[in-house]
Amino acid sequence: MRWVICALLTLAMPSGARAADLSGDFDALRGSQPVGYTHYQRWSGFYVGGQIGEDFNSVDFRGLGFSELETIAGLSSIFDGIPLTNFPRLSSLSTRAPSYSVFLGYNFQFESAIVGVELNLTNTSFKGSMNDVESHSYFTTANNVVYDTDYTVTTGATAKVNDYASARGRFGWVFGNFLPYGFLGVSVAQINATKFVNVNVCGQETPYDCNNPPPPFPPPPAPIGGNWTIADQATGKWYFGYTAGFGVD
């Protein structure tokens, strides 16, 4: 079964502190150096570094459960007239996790203007999970008997990001020893995800219900009900999205 976790396709992470600039005569290093007839700080060339930070993430589970409930509702006449797809719908959540990154990039300098490209690889321990249970009672008729029937729907989902990478374009402007910049790029993340939907139905002849069953004598009509579950998981799949933000070197 194919499905997509929409919230996790948006992998915009705040830019953390950059590694300190190095100085020297190598073209790969940046520092204070005249360029042309006007003096500019030199930011052109290769750069490499690492960072330790904290990622703030959101997971959107709101699209999960609808198709599974539609499938279950078509499996038995016991769901006829029951608005099963209006039962619990998961929401979104925000969470935070430490992250460890390495980056490699190259800047092109045009006087004070900087245009560059950058590759980032990040390891994180981000995980989000959510469960919801909702129950409603309806009067249903089967075999000319009226039942007080409980419909209970349990929905759950988890998502865990192991690693993610991004390729970014950078656009900045030199201000003295500082380089404020914006970036825009694409991201790819490796995600482990699970989801499940369970529907439990139990009905007893009125005026009784499943929490208050009828006495055994005289023998009451047989209860109605059943249990249906649809579950799915995706392990180590890669999902694509975008990344954007601002930073200062």
Set out the fold topology.
Elements: E1 31-32, E2 41-42, E3 45-60, H1 66-73, E4 92-110, E5 113-124, E6 127-142, E7 145-173, E8 180-205, E9 224-248
Antiparallel strand pairs: 1-2, 3-4, 4-5, 5-7, 6-7, 7-8, 8-9
Helix content: under 10%
Average pLDDT for all residues: 83
Sketch the major β-sheet.
7 strands, antiparallel
Instruction: Report the total helices.
Output: 1
Q: How many β strands by DSSP?
A: 9
Radius of gyration: 28 Å
Show unreliable segments.
Answer: 1-32
Q: Could you tell me the strand content as a percent range?
A: over 45%
Overall 3D geometry? rod-shaped
User: SSE order in H/E notation?
Assistant: EEEHEEEEEE
Give the structural class: mainly beta
Terminus-to-terminus distance: 45 Å
List keywords for this structure.
mainly beta; disordered N terminus; two-stranded antiparallel sheet; 3% helix; 249 residues
Outline the structure in words.
- It contains one helix and nine strands.
- It is mainly β and 249 residues long.
- Strand 6 and strand 7 form a beta hairpin.
- The two termini are 45 Å apart.
Short description:
By secondary structure, this protein is mainly β.
